[in-house]
Write a sequence for this structure.
């Protein structure tokens, strides 16, 4: 087991290096092949109406004239240890983990990423709790009442949930519950540290909107899983023991049906950034999603690179955790 | 015959399906006393398992329509509340299933599953229940029960799994134990061990046992009484001696003829029953067995028009056949017995 975790960690590191190589190549090698000079690249870092000498200074300082593998090495070193940039007179230190400097405001990328992360985390964790509990509960009930009105109704809603995009459901919910009936008026982000109550109240609509998208999928998955496990022989055994039906369903049925759900849940959490981009934009939440949108609009390559690295880090880690969890959930899995 | 521990009278279990009404069990009656073993024999689809699940009340929640009487110590189970049947299930009556691997939950240890069965019906501490589980595993012949109690079912061999199932079924000292094809999924050598175990435990606990099987060898080994089922009905019912030494129903003859015997010469072929069991939706009119029966000519056409009633051909020996008791005895002695 320990050996497995170590092995997985090692492959995880390799995977991340590979991802960084590919994204780095896309952002810095491809433009160079297309004829972009180091001077033009450096100009991006200086802001509007730059003086040529300033650009030249940045070009030397960031080493943009160096061969690409050196630049990549410096980038990696910055992520792991932090890095000193110097052109002889002007020295600046970009502390670990350094993802380079943003084009937009010439600041290191990492602190900006980190300052936006709590918003996305608040959104993601709240929504995840909602969709997991809601989706699984609805799925179980649907499976137990298979073919009834409740089953058909909730599966119909689930179909809508999977099909409707977040910006549609989000706007509708804003229109209804923030403007028409102002139960959640003036939705904006408040840090949990400054006012937890307001934090939660303002996030209810985004949570529900994002959770609706995923809950639908989870309800369907749980329903299918429960229908399968409730037909298993060990369920009959559990009933034959004289267990109350509730125990049979939860302890014996759901326990077995949850395994695939956990897998998908881990992966979805890692992939959540995509869902968060739309939700954050719809509700004007200043999180990583908005950060990403802005970075793309500004063609701010270092920022985009940072987001991609962070996102892939989460996905790879989520994958690893799922693999390890599998062994915990299912005693038949051993490494 | 009143006062028996288990009385089943005219039990019918029908399922409404899209294809029509499935008469899985259609008028079964038998009785069983403590310390006795009843073997229910029949081909696949003859209603054996449906009967046993019906006694355990495990058709609840399905579309089964159950009529007739199931009385356990006089208490009617067909019309009892679901809560009451659930209370009896696992405590007063317990069941062992065919495939021990799929019947044990793969995610819980064997010990946990036995402990759970015990603690549903007994208010005891976890430690006491655990000790009880270890004792039970020891009793059913699991080596090193104190450590194996923490194993998962997949870490057990097939025979050990079935032993664990038996331990689980016995956890609350049931007075009625139903074993539904307990050895079908096991190796031949293990089969004999499990059968021995069941019969030993029965002697020890004094419980009544219903053993459901398609294997007459199993019945010969364990059963005091035998019920032969065909297409959801009783074909023949009597003591084991009645069934093996003087069977009256052509279907029973067929079952005996298709059973391999070590004493038979290698050149002798088994005598299979022709045809296949009927669909339980369209049971043939008259005697359900008549399309496969070789003696219909002797019944002057009654076999395809009239459903034969169970008749007592000797004391306690019932046969549902249009052949007269004399004809049955004659055919058995002259044509069947000599070939076996």
């Amino acid at each position: 087991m320990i050996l497995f975790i170590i092995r997985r960690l090692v492959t995880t590191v390799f995977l991340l290096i590979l991802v960084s190589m590919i994204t780095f190549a896309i952002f810095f090698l491809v433009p160079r092949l297309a004829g972009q000079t180091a001077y033009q690249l450096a100009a991006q870092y200086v802001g509007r109406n730059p003086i040529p000498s300033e650009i030249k200074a940045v070009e030397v300082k960031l080493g943009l004239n160096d061969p690409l593998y050196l630049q990549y090495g410096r980038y990696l070193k910055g992520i792991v240890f932090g890095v000193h940039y110097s052109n002889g007179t002007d020295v600046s230190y970009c502390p670990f983990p350094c993802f380079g400097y943003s084009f937009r405001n010439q600041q290191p990328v990492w602190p900006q990423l980190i300052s936006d992360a709590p918003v996305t985390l608040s959104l993601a964790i709240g929504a995840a709790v909602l969709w997991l509990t809601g989706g699984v509960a609805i799925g179980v009930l649907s499976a137990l009442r298979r073919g009834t009105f409740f089953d058909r109704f909730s599966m119909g809603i689930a179909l809508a949930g999977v099909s409707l995009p977040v910006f549609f459901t989000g706007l509708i919910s804003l229109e209804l519950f923030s403007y028409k009936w102002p139960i959640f008026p003036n939705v904006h982000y408040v840090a949990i540290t400054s006012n937890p109550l307001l934090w939660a109240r303002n996030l209810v609509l985004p949570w529900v909107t994002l959770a609706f998208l995923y809950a639908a999928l989870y309800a369907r998955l749980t329903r299918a899983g429960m229908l399968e496990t409730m037909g298993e022989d060990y369920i009959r055994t559990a009933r034959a023991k004289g267990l109350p039906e509730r125990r049979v369903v939860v302890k014996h049925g759901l326990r077995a049906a949850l395994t695939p759900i956990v897998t998908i849940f881990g992966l979805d959490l890692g992939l959540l950034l995509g869902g968060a981009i739309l939700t954050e934009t719809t509700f004007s939440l200043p999180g990583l999603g908005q950060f990403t949108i802005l970075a793309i609009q500004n063609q701010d390559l270092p920022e985009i690179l940072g987001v991609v690295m962070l996102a892939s880090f989460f996905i790879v880690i989520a994958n690893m955790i799922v693999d390890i969890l599998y062994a915990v959930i299912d005693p038949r899995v051993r490494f | 015959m009143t006062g028996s521990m288990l009385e089943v009278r005219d039990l019918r279990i029908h399922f409404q399906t899209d294809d029509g009404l499935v008469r899985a069990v259609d008028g079964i009656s038998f009785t069983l006393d403590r310390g006795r073993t009843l073997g229910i024999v029949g081909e696949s689809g003859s209603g054996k398992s449906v009967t046993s699940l019906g006694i355990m009340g495990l058709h609840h929640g399905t579309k089964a329509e159950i009529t007739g009487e199931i009385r356990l110590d006089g208490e009617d189970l067909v019309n009892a509340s679901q809560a009451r049947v659930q209370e009896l299930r696992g405590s007063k009556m317990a069941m062992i299933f065919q495939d021990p691997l799929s019947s044990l939950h793969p995610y819980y240890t064997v010990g946990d599953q036995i402990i759970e069965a015990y603690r549903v019906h007994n208010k005891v501490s976890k430690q006491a229940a655990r000790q009880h589980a270890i004792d039970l595993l020891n009793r059913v012949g699991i080596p090193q029960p104190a450590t194996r109690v923490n194993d998962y079912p997949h870490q057990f061999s097939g025979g050990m799994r079935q032993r664990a199932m038996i331990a689980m079924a016995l956890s609350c000292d049931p007075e009625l134990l139903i074993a539904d094809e307990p050895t079908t999924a096991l190796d031949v050598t293990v089969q004999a061990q499990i059968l021995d175990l069941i019969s030993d435990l029965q002697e020890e606990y004094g419980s009544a046992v219903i053993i459901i099987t398609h294997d007459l060898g199993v019945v010969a080994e364990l059963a005091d009484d035998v019920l032969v089922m065909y297409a959801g009905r009783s074909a023949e019912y009597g003591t084991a001696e009645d069934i093996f030494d003087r069977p009256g129903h052509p279907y029973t003859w067929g079952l005996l003829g298709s059973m391999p015997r070590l004493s038979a010469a290698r050149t002798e072929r088994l005598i299979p029953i022709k045809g296949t069991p009927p669909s339980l939706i369209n049971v043939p009119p008259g005697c359900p067995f008549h399309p496969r029966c070789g003696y219909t000519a002797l019944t002057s056409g009654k076999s395809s028009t009239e459903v034969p009633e169970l008749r007592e051909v000797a004391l306690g020996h019932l046969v549902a056949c249009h052949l007269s008791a004399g004809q049955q005895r004659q055919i058995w002695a002259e044509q069947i017995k000599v070939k076996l």
The mean pLDDT of chain A is 87. The longest helix of chain A spans residues 109-144. The interface with chain B takes residues 232-234, 236-245, 252, 255-256, 329-332 of chain A (CB under 8 Å). The CA atoms of residues 326 and 332 of chain A lie 9 Å apart.
